Amino acid sequence: MRQLSSQDAVFFYADNPHANGNVTLLHIYDQSTAPGGVVRFKSILAHIESRLEQLPILRQRVKQAPLGLDRPYWVEDEDFNLEYHVRHIALPKPGDWRQFCIQASRIHARPLDLNRPLWEMYVIEGLDSFLDLPKGSFALLLKIHHAAIEVEHGCEITELLHDLTPDVRPPGPLEPWFPEAPPNDLMLLARAAVNTALFPFSRLWPMARAVAGLAPALFERVMDGLRPNDHAIVTRFNSVVSPHRVFDTRRFPMDEFAAVQNLARGATIDDAAFAICGGALRRYLDMQGELPDISLTASIPTSLQAADPDGAHGFEWMHARLGTDIDDPVARLESIRDQMAAAKAAAVGDDFTDVARYAPAPTISLTSKMLAYASAQLGRWAPAANCAIAHVPGPEHPLYLVGARMTYYSAILPIADGMGLVFALTRYDDKINLSFTGCYEQIPDPESFAQCMRDSFQEYLAIARARESAQKAAKKPAGKPVRKAPPRRKSVGKVA
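Predicted structure:
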């Protein structure tokens, strides 16, 4: 038994019926590399079961303290049933990408059963009509609550579930698992009493310092909201979200993405991704007749290196304007490059996370709900940002599941009231994936939005290719002058 960290407790308490904290990792496989060219569901089930010892969180559920007097605990589920969590479905014909995105969105949107371990896994067959993936591919969707996984470390659970080679080794005999008996309410009340008694000595002073640091930040936030044009512009993405989700993604070769990155000296891959997202938003909102004169702003979570008192890693927020008010793509990229360099030196949010680290459980629970409500209300007149962009690290080498090579890796991320659009940037197999998760009522045409992402990328790529061609032409040596052959003399006949 272990207690949820303060940050994980925030994610757990923030759940509501229409905006949950689900994170869904998507994996797609080419089963032609597996022995016999076929992967059976029972083989996947046995494989997952063999990895449970390395992933104890998959057998643990949340046990809340009576009356919410203390942070919840992770306890082993005495009724754990693997076949409840791992499910097998298939797409109807023709099994194309649009069908897959709709199915993945529906799975992601459904809330998890909070009385069971906070995850579900779906093996999806029938992926027969994907443009750039082999026929007969299948997918594995891992839906897990944000309280149980750090997004920036999502690839760690992916790597533990996979192998580095296609060689299939049958799982050996499994060690018997005997779950620990969960604590009863009396035991949890006793722990809560002890933690409450120790609170003034262990956390009151650090919390007081965090609140002291938070006060100026809060004042600055309020003043920013009152100053014209200092806060993010209100858009369709900043209202209360519905329970329905949309998802789509576009893949780009790494070398082409690098060509876009090199359009601005010193730009990073992330800068290029943000610029492409900005271009996509500019195109989409212009199509809707809703393009504002002021640039849209993105919140960008960044992992903190130092762990909090509970041993978990927190994160801070950076904010950057996406240049949706800039028509020139290269100028947009340069603007984002400059902003990100400055934002990394002045990230926002450390003071806010410090309060959550040291606050007592009832305060965390109440504050989580109040912040969710405040975010929804602020979105109506002074949102902190219009969308979020998260870099979800992917595996750095090819992975295999029961011999099937993984060909695609991406993520569907949670959205919330006041921020109904989030982008995920993932990298795997020399490809860059740009995905988005949105509210269906805010983006009823996800295909159009996905096309805007591709068009934005192609615009950048065309500029990069034209620049490369011009540079090659400039470096090409001038041709040598062609010498004219001397005129031939006419032969003179001999006189007889």
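Summary: Residues 2-170+184-473 form a domain with the Chloramphenicol Acetyltransferase fold (CATH 3.30.559.10).
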